[in-house]
Amino acid sequence: STQYEHILTTRPNPSVALITLNRPKALNALSTPLFLELNKALFEADADQAIGAIVLTGSEKAFAAGADIKEMKDKEFSDVYKNNFLANWSELSRLRKPVIAAVSGYALGGGCELALMCDIILASPTAKFGQPEINLGVIPGGGGSQRLVHAIGKSRAMELVLTGRMVSAQEAEQWGMISRITDNVVEEAVKMATDISSKGQIAVQAGKEVVNAAYELSLAEGLRFERRTFHGLFATKDQKEGMAAFAEKRKAEFTHL
Ligand code: CO8
């Protein structure tokens, strides 16, 4: 497999790709070189027929403590505008396969935003989320202001963005920002990814697509899109197999066709 400098890629089992952000000395501070590697690994996993879901994690101490401030601090408006700085930092949200974030320690700034781009967030009890950009004289630039409003509502999103306060895993769970808190968060995320991989992959991709559509569409349009997508699944072998297996009281053998 490809050797990377800023990330590690492993295959805990044939159906799951595990990507680990690996700049421990900088608390996984995010940089353009890191994202070039991350994007490559993500799209390779997305294209690999054997992989059904992806887990993204960091270290015990930090999922990611944000964009690399040392790399950013001398940038000028003309650079960031001309080169569209951060434009290729959100490629993750274009993936068709589910991505599960396994968050331990700091998920701050771009780190929090990266977790929010994932489809499901699991957190260890040590996780801390926040958007501290306000303390640096800026605001979130990786989608935090928008995705947080959907995830936790306006008042809480506004509080995080305007105060920079960090919230604990417990608070994030109460707020509905994450699915749940668990010890051994990577192991649990891999288990969940393995479970998702055992389903019919066409239905999994359709499920991700319709849930994500709720961000973009009006309720009426979203309901219509869901219904049509549901209808479309009756053209798959997996629907025939899944329903036949239920009727015959046996386990479905999905072929992803
Ligand atoms: N950038 C660069 N280096 C960092 C960063 C960072 N974001 N965070 C930590 N580091 C480095 C420290 O400088 C330090 O390096 P060194 O050993 O060379 O001095 C090392 O990591 C360890 O950090 P600390 O000594 O500070 O560790 P502490 O345990 O004392 O503190 C904290 C941990 C509280 C997490 C602290 O490091 C901190 O406040 N970090 C900065 C958090 C922050 O402000 N993040 C937001 C950055 S701005 C941003 O993310 C913009 C988003 C852009 C969009 C992204 C789209 C995906």
TrEMBL record:
<dbReference type="GO" id="GO:0006635">
    <property type="term" value="P:fatty acid beta-oxidation"/>
</dbReference>
<comment type="similarity">
    <text>Belongs to the enoyl-CoA hydratase/isomerase family.</text>
</comment>
<dbReference type="GO" id="GO:0005739">
    <property type="term" value="C:mitochondrion"/>
</dbReference>
<protein>
    <recommendedName>
        <fullName>Probable enoyl-CoA hydratase, mitochondrial</fullName>
        <ecNumber>4.2.1.17</ecNumber>
    </recommendedName>
</protein>
<dbReference type="InterPro" id="IPR018376">
    <property type="entry name" value="Enoyl-CoA_hyd/isom_CS"/>
</dbReference>
<keyword id="KW-0443">Lipid metabolism</keyword>
<dbReference type="GO" id="GO:0004300">
    <property type="term" value="F:enoyl-CoA hydratase activity"/>
</dbReference>
<dbReference type="InterPro" id="IPR001753">
    <property type="entry name" value="Enoyl-CoA_hydra/iso"/>
</dbReference>
<dbReference type="InterPro" id="IPR029045">
    <property type="entry name" value="ClpP/crotonase-like_dom_sf"/>
</dbReference>
<keyword id="KW-0276">Fatty acid metabolism</keyword>
<keyword id="KW-0456">Lyase</keyword>
<dbReference type="InterPro" id="IPR014748">
    <property type="entry name" value="Enoyl-CoA_hydra_C"/>
</dbReference>
<dbReference type="Pfam" id="PF00378">
    <property type="entry name" value="ECH_1"/>
</dbReference>
